[in-house]
Every structure is written in structure tokens, then in C-alpha cells.
Amino acid sequence: MTSIALLKGEGMVPRIARGMLGSPKASIAFIVCLVLILAAVFAPMIAPQNPYDLNEIDFFDAKLPPMSVGYNGMTYILGTDGQGRDMFSAMLYGLRTSLAVGVTAGVLAMVVGTAMGLLAAYRGGAIDSVIMRFVDLMLGFPTILVALMILVVFGQGVDKVILALVFVQWAYFARAVRATALVESGKEYAEAARCLGIPAWRIMFAHILPNCLPPLIVIGTIQVASAIAAEATLSFLGIGLPITQPSLGLLISNGYQVMLAGLYWMSVYPGLLLLVLVFSVNIVGDRLREILNPRLAQ
Amino acid sequence: MTVFILRRVLQAILVLAITSLIVFLGVYAIGDPLEILLPADASMAERAQVAASLHLDQPLPLQYLNFVTSALQGDFGRSFVYNRPALEVIFERLPATLELVTTSLVLSLVIGLPLGLWAGMKPGTLTDESVMTGSILGFSLPNFWQGMMLIMIFSVWLGWLPSTGRGDTGTVLGLRTSYATWDGFVHLLLPALNLAMAQIALVIRLTRTGVQETMPLDFVKYARARGLSERRILFVHVLKTILIPIVTVLGIEFGSLIAFAVVTETIFAWPGVGKLIIDSINMLDRPVVVAYILVIVTMFILINLIVDVLYSLLDPRIRSRA
Predict the structure, then answer these.
(1) Which of A237, A269, A289 best tests the B interface by mutation, with the highest count of B CBs <10 A?
(2) Are the beta carbons of B137 and A279 separated by less than 8 Å?
(3) What is the signed CA dihedral for B42, B48, B49, B50, rounded to 10 degrees?
(4) Alpha carbon distance A115, A177 (integer Å)
(5) Chain B residues touching A286 at Cβ < 8 A
(6) Which of A236-240, A282-286, B78-82, B172-176 is predicted with the least confidence, judged by mean pLDDT?
């Protein structure tokens, strides 16, 4: 794959950039992702109020519909929740939590999965069989069931949710890395490196790992989206994040209690934000797959 | 072949044993059911009595040994909340979940197949692009939020369908089912659609890829040369070929739908095992939680085992690799 890019004299970053620009849908999704990430990072500066500072919240402003003006003269563009919090601010902070948990889980899963995949590929034999049987086993169970089991066993909390997500997702990376590494280690450059007497671990990490990057990037993007969605689902079920760190899922869950009473904005808007986030990350991932797949890129 | 099946069965038993140990330790190491079962002003004597009646006073290894011996006889203990055998509580709720899951599978085929065929026939067109983007949307829609929106649109705003519960059930051929009454049927629609959404997206993708891979094959060209109509080629010859992998995948997805029913049942207050497990986790009803996890894991291992064995029967190459 990289060899194709090298023949064209083009590195991976320009290739991805060109591919993204080639599809208007992917470009828009990419910009949306970027805006959301910036919004999450700078949430404390953008948000009209700090929704978790009790001094800034007025209980008399509770359950106001969107565009209402509160007692303190502030306009709540997306309404307020049951405690009088500005929904827009709460959503920005929720986005921060959701993204932080999703990205952390995705990156950790990638590190663990890559290490296991490389280990399986370069040790082979019994280690390979054990790791791969475990991977098959993990992939045979649905995400939600494994995460549920782990949270039942270890209890709630940010660290536990991340642990559960990593445990669920590392197998996808391990399988892809092992497959790619096996193909790559049969190629001439790997053979040449072996002939030069470079130690196996060095060949794996310095020569073969960089060539495993394309599938890793694709899977990583899609797994981050799925981690965000999974965390939201677990929090909605009440077994994910604690109430002190409300993610988008928890906001939606709180809004669900009053949705049937017609107070729609408390669940609709955080849900829309979650959808836009997951959807745009998935679109970017789908486009990356097209760009980086040698069979599709002609 | 026998060796292959034996090895797989042994692996399955090993996985089940490990799961039971982890789940037992985890569930029994956290939370104290006495806190929930007893009023706050219960005396020490009362506590000890209840603890003894639930065997909570024994050392942990002994509790596990008791647990495994009884579990093998189908006894997972009595539910702390319902005060009935845990397995009985689960099996009583299972039919409602299975009904929901099968309806979703049928829905995903009925909606997904035509859309996938449509997109596959016109690769690269606006139709194809919209259907494929729609399927990414289907994947991305957080299941629980999507269910809430269904309730809001169809129950709160339009008032067409009931929002929660199972409604009236009737008996057909000895089975209690929602299909027997109109009220039951309309109660089933929204939860089934909610659960089916991701599967619809999956069926669309599988069908589209299948059509695109099958269309250039020789037998399709031959069918064309014979002067068969495009419609007949697509709906009879191509569909027959691509249906096999789709049905296989859906068979595997059956288990994951049962797991995802947890979300659907929580939103729609559907009285199945999914809602039961979430309620039981919140109420620290350990026997039910443990029994649920082990029943579901056993089911999964069985499904995977059957799929593995079937594959190896169909494709001898897999046997030598395993």
C-alpha cells in the first residue's frame, strides 16, 4: 500500500487530504468533526454559563423552552433542564466528556490491540493461537453484552467505562494488525531487513508497523465513533458514567424522564448533537477506508 | 471432523467455566444485597438470619462451589426481589424478547433487501449514494435515542402507536404472543423497528456488495444471453446467490439482537429479559444477574459452535486451519 503511494511519490497525509477534498460529503463531515472537537476543547470558554457551578444556575429558570429569557436576562437558546441549567452549555460540557471518553478508549484499544496483533504475528505458534482464539471469542460477543458484564463486575465510573470499551474493542485492532503484519513480513523489504540481521522486534516495530498504519487509521476512526455511541448507551442505561460527569448519553437519559410530558428539548438536542458527532466521524472513517484501500483506490 | 467438534466443545466449556468464575466473583464481590433487602433499622440478628438463609455467611470459594453444583442442575438460586427461582424468572421473560428479536429480523430483511438491491443495481448514482449514506446514518443513530424519537414522533405527536408496554397478548398454538391481538401487534411495531434499525443498515450493505459482486459473474451474463428479463435475473438468480451469506450473518446477529434488546426494552418498557437484567442490576438482584449472563453466554457459545461446525462441514479448508 505504502509502496503504491511511494511510486506515486506521495505520502499518506497528502493522499488523505486529497481524498477528503475529492468528496464534498467527506469534506463537510471532516469540518464538522473539527468544529465539534474544538467546541469540546474550548467548552469552558464558549459556554454561556458553567452548568455545574451552582452560583450560575437559577432554579426559577428550570424547564424553560428554547429561546426563553431567564430571570437573569440570559437567553437560553436551547432551553433549560429540570435544574435550570442552560441546555446549550450542558451539551458543550457533555460533548467534552463524551469525546474524551471515546477518544481515550479508542486510542488505548488501538495500543493494546496493535501490540497483541504484532506479538501474534511475529511470535506465531502457540502465542498466536491463544491470542487469536481470544480475539475470535471477543468478536463473537456483542459489544454491549461484554461491556455490561464488565460494568456489572467492576461497578460504575469513568475509568471502568473506558476499561470496558478497551476490553471490547482491542480485538478489532489485533485482528487487522496481525493480518497486515503477516502479509507485510513476507514482502521483500522485510526479507532484506532480516538478511541484514536486524532483530525481529525491530523489524516489527520500525519496518512493519508503519505499513500497518492505513488499516489502523480506518479502524481507529470507526472505533472511536462506536466507543462514543457505546458509552452513551451505557450511560443511558444507568450503568455507565456517574451523574457527576454527565456525558451526552446521560443528558439524554435525564431528558427522557420528561420527554413524554412534552419537554422535548432536554432529550432531542443532546441526541442530535450525539448523532451529528457519531455520523460525521463514521462518514470520515468510511471515506478513509475508500482512500486507503488499495483495491478501491485506482 | 470428530476431533474438530470435540475440540470446539471443550473450548466452549472452558469459556463457560471462566465466565462463570469471573461473573460470580465480580457480582458477589461488589454491593451488599442485605442493604437493599432489609430495612435500615434491621437488627444484627435479623441481618445474620437473612444472610444465613441466602448462604451469604459462607466463605467465597464454598459459595462458588455451591453455585456451580446448583447451576449445573439448573438452579441459580432464588431471586432476592421476586423470591422465585432466578432461572424461572428469566425463562418466563424470554418469549417476549424472542418475539421482539424475530420480528426485528424479519423487518430488517423486508426493508433492507429491496433498498440494497436498488442501490446495488445503480452503483455510483445518486440513488446508490443516498441509500449508502442512509445506511451509515442507520449505523450512527444511537439506538436508545432513535427509540425515543420514534416514541416522540409516532406516539406523542402523531398519536398513531402506543409508546410503551407490550399490550394485550393472545394465545396461538399454545404460545402467548402479541400477534394474536391488534393491540399487541401495534405495541410491537415501534420496539421492533427500533431494534431493527442497525440490522436494516447491515442488510443494505451486504445486499449491495453482493449484487455488485454477482452481477459481473458468468452465470448472470449467460442468463442475459438466454434473453431473461433483468427483473427475473435480479430477483431470482442474483437474489438466490446473495441470500445465503445474508441469512448466515443474520443468524449470527440473532444473538447480538438479544443483547441489544436490553436498550430497546428499557426504552419501551417491554417486559423481556433485557429490562429484567437492567432492573436486576439496579436492585442488586445477584442471582438473576448471574443467571442472565450465564444463560446469554451459553446461548452465544452454542450459536458460535453451531456456526463453526456448519462452516467446517461446508468448507473443509477451515478444519485443517483450526
Answers:
(1) A237
(2) yes
(3) 70
(4) 9
(5) 136
(6) B172-176
Does B131 touch chain A if contact means CB atoms closer than 8 Å? no
Q: What is the mean pLDDT of residues A121-131?
A: 85
Chain A residues with CB inside 8 Å of B139's CB?
Answer: 282
Candidates B15, B25, B136; nearest CB to A279: B136
Residue of chain A minimizing CA distance to B286: A152
**Do the chains contact at A233 and B144, CB–CB below 8 Å?**
yes
Where is pLDDT greater, at A3 or A217? A217
For residue A36, give the nearest of A289, A243, A279, A290 by alpha carbon.
A279
Task: Tell me the three state secondary structure of residue A287.
Answer: helix
What residues of A are in contact with residue B29 (Cβ under 8 Å)? 153
With contacts defined as CB-CB under 8 Å, which chain A residues touch B254? none
A vs B, Cβ pairs < 8 A, gives 110
C-alpha cell recorded at residue A90: 450542558
* Band of residue A170 on the pLDDT scale cut at 50, 70, 90: very high
Task: Kindly report the pTM of this predicted structure.
Answer: 0.80
Q: Do B143 and A233 touch (CB under 8 A)?
A: yes
Per CATH, domain B94-321 is 2.40.10.220? no
Task: Look at A274 and B25 and tell me if their CB atoms are within 8 Å.
Answer: no
**Is the Cβ pair B145, A267 closer than 8 Å?**
yes
Question: How do residues A185-239 score in pLDDT, each as one tens digit?
Answer: 888 888 888 888 888 888 888 888 888 888 888 889 889 998 998 888 888 888 8
Q: If interface means Cβ-Cβ distance under 8 Å, which residues of chain A face chain B?
A: 25, 133, 137, 140-142, 144-145, 148-149, 152-155, 225, 229, 232-233, 236-239, 249, 252, 256, 259-260, 262, 264, 267-268, 271, 274-275, 278-279, 282-283, 286
**Minimum Cα–Cα distance from A29: chain B residue:** B133
The residues spanned by each domain of chain B are: 94-321
Q: How far is CA A31 from the centre of its chain?
A: 16
B192-207 average pLDDT score: 89
How far from each other are the two terminal CA atoms of chain A, in whole angstroms? 12
What grid cell was written down for B185?
Answer: 401487534
Cα separation, A246 vs A90, in Å, equals 8
Interface predicted TM-score (ipTM) of this complex, two decimals: 0.75
**CA B163/CA B186 separation, integer angstroms:** 10
